[in-house]
Structures are given as structure tokens and as C-alpha cells.
Amino acid sequence: MSTPAPRPLLATASIAVALAAADTYVVVLALTDMMAGVGLGVDALQRATPIISGFLLGYVAVLPLIGRIADLSSRQRVLLWCLAIFVVGSAVTALATDLPTLVAGRVVQGVGGGGLVPATLAIVADLWPADRRGMPLGVVGAVQELGSVLGPLLGAAVLAVSDWRMIFWLNAILGVVLAVLIVRTGGGLGARPRWGPLVVTAVGLAVTGLALAAPDALTTSVSLGLPFVPFGDATARLLTPIGVLGLLLVAVALVLWVRPALPVLRRSDLLGAVLVATALGAVILTFAAADPAREVVGPLGYVLLPVAALATLAYAVHHRRSSAPLIPRGLVRGRALVALVVSLSVGVALVAVVVDVPLLARLIHTDSETGAALVLVRFLVAVPAGALLGGWLLRPLGDGAVATVGLAAASVGLFVMATWGRGSLDTVASTLILALVGVGVGLALAPVNNAALAQAPDEAHGTISALVVVARMVGMVVGLALLTAIGLHQYYDAVAQIPDRTDTAALVDAAIVQVHWVFRGAGVAAAVGALVALGLGLRRHSLRPPPPRPWRRITRTQREGSPQGSPRTR
Known about the structure:
Elements: H1 6-25, H2 27-37, H3 49-61, H4 63-72, H5 75-95, H6 99-127, H7 134-161, H8 165-185, H9 195-213, H10 216-219, H11 241-267, H12 270-288, H13 301-321, H14 334-364, H15 369-393, H16 399-417, H17 428-443, H18 445-455, H19 461-496, H20 504-533, H21 556-561
């Protein structure tokens, strides 16, 4: 069996990570067009929230399970499966004509896109020794942040020549191309293709796609249009004879694919995965679906937060009793626990800048959305540059030294941004401050992943990588809600002190106060992260790399026969 080419494989997997990251932001410009495509007007913006929160839900909720599966089976196969799920979700999104189908496509996209990150990080841990992972991890962090820059640009470029559906068709096409490249650079699959499940899957997806596309030549035909007639009063295209047939074929295909993988799924602790996914999903939906202008916790949050608490408690009990829990015992401790806290702080600082810099730019710099986005680009371009620099600095320095310096610099920059007023964004100094914050946040990305991977045993690299991503995403979602609530409280206090509520300048000043408090809160989060990062170690851990081990994929016999908890066969 041929061995992988590490650098080409890393490059291909990193591009896949960037593609998934871009999808988080690609809907920003296309959202109103997507709403119109499923019959929603601009006055129904609140109903369109699941288009964004659905992707986040899929991205975060199943990450621990995917990370655990990557520890129990071939990393490359998990990477390919995640790409396949991402492609299917993209195609469903592109074909959607009603909101439930559109949201379902976005959730599936999120599941596939989120799983790419821990699988890629685990591949880095497989192919590079512990003392040489810095730069590869920096590359993964850089391309992930680069996706946030390219997402809106890609969306704008496609919308200039086509409609919003083409964005997701391009995602599907690029996903297929990347899957082929991963097979080639990863040394092949090492197993004969399973033609039966492949054929059923292809037919099921083709029939489902035909039902969603509903071409006029067929639907208007007297002889061929009957399968496209909805049941009863239904309007969804999948609630037709051909749609149901397609879904049944897809379900059969899933059974055919999952059945041989049942030993791995059982060992991955499905009950624990359900409990963790329930807790994470409830938290994500609580804060992502709330209207920050009125509330921190939306109406559903008063139900979802207790559900999250109960699911967390249930998992804690299950974790103690299970012989092989989803998160291996002893994994989240020491430097790994420190890395998770720092990752959460990075998420808070990052989201504050991404959301509130454009808002501040609209208040004090420009009336144009494009102009405000260009101000944010000064920060977004600096983040991947900082990630690469952070990976390079891990060769001579310790994880804690790099992360602490980065987050301390970001904290200083955020507190400076909390003093900006009219005219501040017109100066070169503002660009330098935004670049400082971006580089500072980027510097922390590689050290966090490096420390977590170094602390975890080889057989838990996928799981710990997933937890690092989960911590960061939770920091982004929850941090944004809390900081916005603090800022709005100060805004309303400032407005209450305005004698003339028609004074536009005074109202703008009040809005600036709101943004300032968000930056202050993010600065505090970055400062806390910098202090906690000291626990990652200021000196480089001089680990003696083990002798090179051949890249081997776990066979079905090895998966079923090896005892639970044994190291991954290489």
C-alpha cells in the first residue's frame, strides 16, 4: 500500500477546511436572495435565522462524535466521509425551494464541514512528530481563518454573475474535486470499493435530486408528472411519490453504509454522543437564535437551557459509569484543559471584532456596507498571517509563550479600539491596531492545538481536536450574546440621558458607546486568555520524536478485534 505525501495531503485537507469555513460566512450577502428563493420576504428575517443557526448547529453538535470516530478508524476515511456529507448538504441547499429543506441542507453542510477540522488536525498529529507540528498546525489555522475572508468575497463574486444557488453548486463541485485529491495524496483507500452501497447511494441521491429539481418538462407532462404531485395539501417537493422514493433509497443506503461500521460506532459511545450533542445544540440554538437587540436568551432559551443542563448532568453520570466514554477519562486535564479555556477566549475576542468593527465603521466612517466590510478585512487578513507566524514560532518557543504574547497584544489592541470615535478609522493607526489584534488572535491558534495534541495520547487526537474547535465556537456564540447584552445595556443608559431623542448625533454617540463596551469585554476575555495561556508552558517541550511509523489504515478485522482503549494501529 502506498504511503501518503504529507505536504500535498495537508494542503488538500486544509483547502477543504477553508471551504467549510467560508460557508459559515458565505450566506451573509446571499441571505435575502435565499429567503426569496424559499418564499420568504425581507420582513420575515427572524424566520430565516435557522439558515445560519442550522449550519452552526450541525458544525458544533456532532464534532465530539466525529472526533472520536476519527480516533477509532482511518483518519482519511473520516475526512472523505465528511467531504461527502458536505457535498450532499451543498446540493440539497442548492435545490431547496422551501425553508425546511433549505435548513436541512445547511445542517448537513455543517455536520460535514465541522468534521473536517478534527480529522485534519489528527492527520497532522499522525504525519508530523510532536516537536515539528507547529507549522502544519499554523497552516490549518491560517486557512480556516482565510475561509472567513474568502466566504463573503466568494458569495459576492458568484452573485455578480449568477444566483445564490450557484454558490452551493460550486461548493459541491469543489468538494468532489478535493475528495479525489485526498485519495490520491493520501495513498489510496486501501480497500476495494463497496459497489452495492455505492450504487444504491447514487440512485437514491439522483432520485432525491430529481424530486427537488422538479424540471418543468416532467412536472407538466401528462404521462410523467404524476410522481411529482404532492400528497394532500403539502407543498414541499420531497412530499411527493418520487421524493419519498428518493428518501427511502437514501435511508437504505445509510443502513448499508452504517451496518459494517456498527462496531466502531458502538465503541464511540453513541449514548454519550447524543447527550453531548443535545447539550451543545441547546446552547447554540439558545444564543444563535436570540435577537441581540432585545434579548440575550430567546423565548426558546428558557426551555433549551434547562435541557442543556440536564443533558450535561446526564453525560457526567454516564461518563463515570461507561467503560469507554465518548471523551476518554483523563483527557480534559492539564495542558489540554488550559488549551480549551484559551480556545474559548480566542472565540470571544474573534467574534467581537468580526461583528462590531463593521458596525462601528457604519457609525463613524462610511454609509456603505462594502466600505465597512473593507475595514474588517484589515483584521481578517492579519489573522491567518498571525496563525502562520504562531506555527513558525513554536519551533524555538513554548506554546504558552506564543499564545500569551498574542492574546496580550490582542487585548491591548481591543482596549485601544474601545476609545475610537469619529475620524479614528481614517488614520493609518487604526489599520495598525486592527492588524495587531488580528495577528495576536492568530498567534494563539497553533499553540492551542499543539498543546492539546501533545497532552492527549495518540488514540485521542481526533477527540481533543474536536473539543478545541467546540470550545472556540461556543466562545463565539455565547460571547457575542453576552457582550452584545452588556453593550446594549450601556446604549440604553446613554439614550436615556439624551434630552432630545431626535438628536441624530447624540444617538450615534450612544451606539458608539455600545460598541466600545463590546470591545472592552473582548479585551478582558483576551487578557484572561493570555493569563491562562501561561499554563501551556513558556518553554518548548523537548520531546524526543518516536521512530517513524508506517501509515496504515485500520481494517475491519482490526477494528472489531482490538480491545477498547488500545492505541490506534498505525
